[in-house]
Design goal:
Mean pLDDT of chain A: 94
Order of helices and strands of chain B: HEEHEHHEHEHEHHEEEEHEHHE
Low-confidence stretches of chain B: 1-9
Shape of chain A: globular
Mean pLDDT of chain B: 95
Oligomer: heterotetramer
Structural class of chain A: alpha/beta
Low-confidence stretches of chain A: 1-11
Strand order of the largest sheet of chain B: 2-1-3-4-6-5-11-7
Structural class of chain B: alpha/beta
Largest interface: A-D, 69 and 69 residues
Strand content of chain B: 15-25%
Strand content of chain A: 15-25%
Radius of gyration of chain B: 23 Å
Number of strands of chain A: 23
Bound molecules: thiamine diphosphate, iron/sulfur cluster, magnesium ion
Number of helices of chain B: 11
Number of helices of chain A: 21
Distance between the termini of chain A: 54 Å
Largest sheet of chain B: 8 strands, mixed
Shape of chain B: globular
Chain lengths: ~625, ~325, ~325, ~625
């Protein structure tokens, strides 16, 4: 692939190992789109990367206000990348509000690209600036590029006969063009994208393309202030294969589809929209030709119940939501547990309690996932670690649900759901199938007969001849399936329900060290989306020769075999979490061992340096 | 054990009865309904294995256990949602929902209304005994003002809801009423089954333990001719021991008239099952009470529309190819 | 800061506006509704401190933050239930519920219907933009068949529900309709406030971001005279640029007639706010759409009946004596 | 009080220390009423006692079937009584089904009173007997009294002109009369009760009274088989005071009323009927003159939300349910937590998961009570130990809710709800008031200002002049109460929410040993309704000189101070529970100490002997 920059430019380009850029502007400025286009091009150029969009809870708050600011951060490098980056190296601020909100995060000496055309008195007022920030000596700490993007964009598209409003909408593309030039990215994917997106309005497409080109040309030709050069980030040395960029919710959706294929089942997906889970519904609604039925239910309870009904009917019932919705599904999940039907329940966690922080990420539904139902109602709980891992964990959830005839909880979160990373695509035909065999033989059948090994009961599709049976939420006799209120039977059934979930551990890989030492001073135990930051922090410290190891849990219930032994191999154990210490509580209850909690529910992901500092302090003799 | 139509062409009532003892109170109206259902199903040409009963929680909701069909005794109020999922997953089976006035109208009101408006192809039987039977007699959304129950020792002050008006308001397209011991109940069940889409049948039911005689004014044999208005499509709305009474429509209001005295025979309203305005008025009629099919105006069922859309997606895009899906959009290769 | 009527007898619009920035999208219909409410409240003679706004979740549900009254932004769909408890605890305050088509009709449908049938003294404003705004544009229970949204890429196949028919079916006793930028909205709000019991007002609202123009056929100024039928109690139902059109009732169906051409002036239906059959038909009218008070038939409010019953209990048994309660029935003494 | 037995009888009476009687018959036989009358009379005679009704899930299953059998057990003694007794000393079986279901529980040599008049072929068939149990030599293990109660009752009431059906309905009263005679009880309370109950049908009242008298006279005059004598159970030595018999749900209801009085608040009780919580609603609905408003909501969510709305409105919002209902309230409880409103939530636990065993008892909602909400959403959790303790714990729940501005969970269970015991009535005017002071001063007010000590925010009643404010479920700024998505603020608010609940521990009594040793070999930790059985088992063993102690938790969250120290004073700790080990899990997570679980979810309460055996085995050197 031929980089877009000319020979002349490339000579001058400074080679960087890694860059973190944040695009920030008004909700209406199209920053998510700009970020995504930058990501797309960067991925195609062979860098490893990770992204993190950060949008306001309001749909489109009044233009120019600080709470209307929308951001998109991308971290790309010539090596492998695990997080969207701690602090941006470059900040693009399309208006004063964006500057106000995001400047505190920009690293000292970072590149600051300001659209000075938007720094009008009105906008300064709306952003709550009392004095002009452009005059503020504070800016001297950064390498500032002041450009009237509004004006230059208008000029670039003036020949297309657009309205002023339409023309103004091209300014994100002008900016993108310039940033493409700054980091030596290829513009082609964006040109294609624009042509496609505006295929019914070719003039708009052309104007936008012209804007990208103008921005790019501006970089090539304009005199840059001192300290601002052109950069290059060479491709990373990634394992060979075909890659794509993927967001977590898309990966989960595709994993469900893949899992259902491997099981040989159609999918019935029942869901009620809720941030940040809604895009799962959107993704699956596009896959009707994959034997996927999507049902937008009247609420989360109906969504879950419809999925249960579908599983009873012989399909793979799937339901997804976020915390407030999961809190509503507890009773229905109890029914799935009592009737021993397969079901996949996805919780894309967000900040709580209650409505909390709907667009922010958190890991605070773990205990609810494990315990949030009446009675002794155990179910397996899994969690994904990166956007692309959502694909694998979703398949695993389908496998466990159908093999053990149980609902399975899959936890992801807002950070995974909206974040993206390059994904080395698996070979679809090399995925291990786990076909479901419905029982069709009436001989000796009753609905709560069990497989000796898995303790799973037989699954019968209604409509099957001669197999009519009734199930329900009342306790049933272990040996006939009929309703039973007998004390010793209830004890036995309670134990079987627990044992069936416990036995899944036999079927799971042994818990291992991810990175760092196999034994020593400090073990870091993580779960879910903190994986990247924790791993990176441990890698840095291990690289420095510290006695530190990292283990990461995909399986939260049952806990994997080997974990207890692993915990015992280190002097200290720390559990960093984006909640008030839920996993650490769960582990303490399982293992009589001292565990330290590092609990930080902030709504924002961990920064690597923060974790480095914490871990380092635990490594020092105290 | 096989019951497929190839091996056996006809079923009898016994084929639909399960081996479980029926555990309702002696004299409960549910027995009569169970008998009507078991008597009617063999005539529908659907085998027990092709039939599913889904219920919530309540006395009524025990129904599936007594049917030798597939059955799902779910949780309180959620049967319509479970049944919707079942129907989406498994369109071939014939699905019946059995529910009570508490189950369907109190905790489950929302699912009922959405199932009706979506027009999911289900037969919904609401056993209305105007009381919470299973929890021992608290008032329900259909109990009358003033009703004394353990939770209303000084009498209820809640306006009751009319199940049929609610169903019509929600957009239900088959709305009917019968009662537990009525000989015409099987007929209604057949109509409900024949209707494609959501069929909603309110069945007035006596709970001799907690609300004995709640409907006796209407169902009492001696008064039946006076108190029951049985609707027949295309027929004038007449009732009374000698069919001497009729219903007249005036000013968008229904009036009871005595033919020959207050009105001409020709003034008696002829039942048009598609007239929703009249159906709404009939649903609210107190004396006589309207029975039979108040409203029937078929439209495509939700589940069929969903399937059609899924098929059209396949027709447009081919059967989904997982490899192609993963490789859709921008990909790149590292060598 | 005091606003009691002793210290200040009149309030202005500004007294009802909070200090929070309004965070709806530019052009959102909610702004106009907010302005109407803030303009109307001062005329009701209820101080900001005596007023409470309760909402669920959604764009509409942000409403309480913008009012300088008591406010409770609760959880999705549950505002009517929260408001019911509030009204039972604190009968003096005037309680408004603000909700969206998703909040009220999807997840919250059951609470809405029970609040209406119980007739709790609340003013319920449903902002109907036929879309889920806050979650970025999925279809709602009022979206039309065929609507393409992120969750229905091939178009919705769900039959929409009519909020007003649902309200009537549930037993609502004040059922009205207005729209966001209507000049007559304040008038409707006043009527709703004046009605004792549950007042239900559907307000057609434009969401320029996710469902722009959903109502423009109806609300467009140029077509307004043709497309809007404003009801006035006791007045003939006339509309059209020159009020040349009217509504005629025939066979319990509404017909649009041109006066002088299809019908006499006297044949035009006169609006009777207590005729529920006509109200049900008006609720379903598509072109023109009926605005104003479709149905009003007051009955005692639930909360008042509850209070009356509590008082009668005190009148009968005296103010409860805890000692006597504990010692009621059989007791014995150990010495 | 003059015992009813004649001088002649009393001479012959055998003095017993304690007796357990179980009345069993068809649902239609009136066994609950019979048991309650026996209890009432026994209480008035100064015995300590405990009762346990056990009725079928079906309302009134077909007559004569085993699943239609209804039982009532009463344990009364000349000493203090802690449980309804392990195994009956006497069984009254009104029909074959009752014999079939309950005979296995009767102790060897126990008294068996059989109504042989009901042992018809039809009834034997319905009960599933293939041969006549009256002929079964198995009966020789018991002291059997065979009486045709049907016939004798008919004779006793023949002069009242009753229908055959009405006459037959008197047979429970005939039986009661006989049992009164057997155990030397006074009949007067029952005579009063019958006159009152049938005051509109005086003939029925008189016939029933005649039946009681006839049964009593039968005992006095008839020749008893050998081995069957007349007994006497002298009064227990109870602390002086006025007593009444009380069921748990009544005690809870009255405790709520008392708590609200002490706080100076009206009560708004929102509830949706569910077994075994419904009788709370029934009890409170009768107390409207106590400033109690009851609201039977459309479902549990509305019930909880209405209670929250009421608390917002300045009343004490209370909601009660059982497990399936609590699973539905999770989201709403999160709102109460986020808005920091007082609320009392009562969960009368029953067997789970799902619909489970609706009429059976269990302790399996503990973890859901602690964790069953989205996000980090802590709330205090208390549990009652005996029927009368429900009164005290309900008051305590109101106190904590109003003092700390928090929802409080109160756990009871089916066993407490329906069980009864004599209760020494507290002096109402000596209960410590804790009046709520609503804030009325606008000066410096914002809704999330906090009391320094309790961290409680001010409570303002809507309608208060000049104090208009808005609250909601979104995260708010700790310093202004305005909506805030700021990361460090969310961390701070999460910590405050946790701290506010944790600080309640400062306000609680130190955890103590209930009975037995203060340190030593085995500590038994219990919570909730297992109190009586555990305490009794420990007392027996401690009496034998075993090194065993018992501590009982009223406070499950936060855990009381002193508990950790207490656990450390024993070599072994065992936690018996009616669930799969939930408290033990919770304790393990808090204390790095080995704890043994004795988990028995059977739907039935513990037997003292069972626990004795288990504890004894843990005391033996292994
Ligand atoms: C979530 C939940 N809430 C409450 C209950 C208790 N409950 C069971 S059935 C019922 C109402 C029954 O009334 P109805 O539906 O009219 O049926 P019926 O017994 O009268 O036939 C209630 C409140 C429950 N099982 N689950
Ligand atoms: C329990 C729960 N489920 C889902 C959501 C997500 N959610 C928030 S608002 C909303 C729908 C909003 O639609 P509508 O009520 O029409 O209000 P609008 O935004 O259009 O004004 C949804 C699904 C939520 N907050 N809580
Ligand atoms: S309680 Fe009523 S409805 Fe329930 S089984 Fe008994 S008679 Fe029937
Ligand atoms: S999304 Fe629509 S409804 Fe919501 S604020 Fe924006 S314009 Fe208004
Ligand atoms: Mg009922
Ligand atoms: Mg909406």
């Amino acid at each position: 692939m031929e980089p877009a920059a000319t020979q002349k430019d490339r000579r001058a380009r400074e080679i960087l190992d890694a860059v973190v850029i944040r695009f920030a502007g008004d909700s209406g400025d199209g920053m998510q789109l700009t970020g995504n286009q930058f990501t797309q091009s960067t991925a195609l150029m062979g860098n490893d990367l990770a992204t993190f969009p950060d949008f306001p809870a309001e749909i489109r708050a009044p233009a120019g206000t600080t709470y209307g600011v929308s951001g998109f951060q991308v971290h790309f490098a010539a090596h492998d990348v695990r997080t969207p980056g701690d602090t941006p190296d470059a900040l693009v601020a399309m208006n004063p509000a964006a500057l106000k909100v995001h400047l505190p995060d920009l690293r000292q000496g970072g590149l600051l690209l300001l659209n000075v055309g938007a720094f009008t008195t009105t906008n300064l007022n709306k952003a709550g600036y009392e004095t002009d920030p452009l005059e503020d000596p504070q800016l001297d700490a950064y390498r500032v590029l002041r450009i009237d993007i509004n004006k230059l964009t208008a000029a670039a598209v003036k020949d297309f006969g657009l309205s002023a409003k339409q023309a103004a909408r091209c300014k994100n593309m002008w900016t993108l063009g310039l940033v493409f030039w700054l980091y030596d990215r290829n513009c082609e994917t964006t040109f294609e994208f624009l042509s496609q997106k505006f295929r019914s309005q070719p003039v708009i497409a052309e104007a936008n393309i012209a804007a990208v080109k103008a921005g790019h040309a501006f970089g090539e030709t304009a005199e840059m202030p001192s300290g601002i050069g052109a950069y290059q980030v060479p491709p990373a040395d990634l394992p060979p294969g075909t890659y794509r960029n993927i967001q977590g919710n898309d990966a989960t959706a595709w994993g469900i589809v893949a899992g259902a294929r491997l099981a040989g089942l159609p999918v019935v997906y029942g869901s009620y929209p809720i941030t940040p889970a809604s895009s799962l519904l959107h993704a699956l609604a596009k896959l009707k030709h994959f034997d996927v039925t999507t049902f937008q239910a009247e609420d989360e309870i109906a969504a879950c119940c419809a999925a249960i009904g579908a599983s009873f009917g012989g399909a793979l019932g799937v339901t997804a939501t976020s915390g407030p919705g999961l809190a509503l599904k507890g009773e229905a999940l109890g029914l799935a547990i009592a009737t021993e039907l397969p079901l996949v329940v996805i919780d894309v966690q967000r900040g709580g309690p209650s409505t909390g922080l709907p667009t922010k990420t958190e890991q605070s539904d773990l205990m609810m996932a494990i315990w949030g139902r009446n009675g002794d109602a155990p179910m397996p709980v899994l969690a994904a670690r990166t956007p692309s891992d959502c694909f694998d964990v979703a398949i695993e959830a389908v496998r466990i649900a159908t093999r053990y005839m149980t609902p399975v909880m899959l936890l992801t979160d807002g950070y995974l759901a909206n974040g993206s990373e390059p994904w080395k695509l698996p070979e679809v035909d090399q995925l291990e199938p786990f076909p479901v065999r419905f029982r069709e033989d009436p001989e000796g059948y009753h609905p709560f007969l069990r497989d000796e090994k898995t303790l799973a009961r037989p699954w019968v599709r209604p409509g099957t001849d001669g197999m009519a049976h009734r199930i329900g939420g009342l306790e049933k006799h272990h040996d006939s399936g009929n309703i039973s209120y007998d004390p010793s039977n209830h004890l036995k059934m309670s134990q079987i329900r627990a044992e069936r979930v416990a036995r899944i551990a036999n079927d799971l890989p042994l818990q291992k060290i991810e990175v760092g030492e196999e034994e020593g001073t400090l073990l870091v135990v993580s779960w879910g989306s903190t994986y990247g930051a924790v791993r990176q922090a441990v890698r840095v410290l291990a690289g420095e020769g510290c006695s530190i190891g990292h283990t990461h849990l995909r399986y939260l219930n049952p806990l994997p075999q080997g974990l207890g032994e692993l915990l015992g191999r280190f002097e200290r154990v720390i559990v960093p979490e984006k909640n008030q210490g839920q996993l650490v509580h769960h582990l303490r209850a399982q293992f009589s061992i001292e565990l330290e909690s590092y609990a930080r529910p902030t709504g924002a992901p961990f920064r690597i340096v923060e974790l480095e500092t914490v871990f380092r302090s635990r490594l020092e003799p105290s | 054990m096989s019951d497929s139509s190839t091996t056996r062409s006809k079923f009898s009532k016994a084929d639909y009865a399960s081996d479980q003892d029926v555990r309702w109170c002696p004299g409960c109206g549910d027995y009569a309904i169970l008998a009507s259902v078991q008597r009617t199903l063999p005539e529908l040409g659907v085998s027990p294995s092709q039939t599913v009963f889904v219920s919530g929680i309540g006395c009524a909701a025990r129904f599936p256990y007594y049917m030798n069909t597939y059955g799902f005794h779910t949780i309180h109020g959620r049967a319509p949602a479970v049944a919707t999922g079942l129907k989406l997953a498994n369109p071939e089976v014939s699905v019946w929902v059995v529910t009570g006035d508490g189950d369907a109208l109190s905790i489950g009101g929302n699912h009922l209304l959405h199932t009706l408006r979506r027009n999911v192809d289900l037969n919904i039987l609401l056993f209305n005994n105007r009381i919470y039977g299973l929890t021992k007699g608290q008032y329900s959304p259909t109990s009358l003002i003033g009703q004394v129950t353990p939770s209303t020792p000084l009498g209820s002050v809640d306006m009751p809801v009319s199940p049929l008006r609610l169903a019509l308001g929600a957009g239900g397209r088959f709305v009917a009423r019968g009662y537990d011991v009525s000989k015409r109940l099987p007929e209604l069940l057949k109509e409900a089954h024949a209707h494609v889409g959501a069929s909603f049948v309110e069945i007035l039911q006596n709970c001799p333990v907690f609300n004995d005689g709640a409907w006796s004014d209407v169902t009492d044999r001696k008064r039946a001719a006076e108190s029951q208005l049985w609707l027949e499509s295309g027929q004038p709305m007449r009732f009374g021991p000698n069919r001497e009474k009729g219903i007249r429509l005036r000013n968008a209001q229904l009036e009871v008239v005595t033919i020959g005295r207050d009105a001409e025979e020709s003034e008696v309203l002829v039942h048009d099952e598609q007239n929703i305005g009249v159906a709404f008025l009939l649903a609210g009629l107190g004396d006589p009470i309207a029975f039979g099919v108040l409203y029937r105006d078929p439209a495509p069922a939700y589940d069929a529309a969903v399937r059609a859309q899924n098929s059209s997606a396949v027709a447009r895009a081919g059967v989904g190819d997982l490899h192609a899906l993963l490789h859709s959009g921008h990909t790149w290769t590292v060598e």
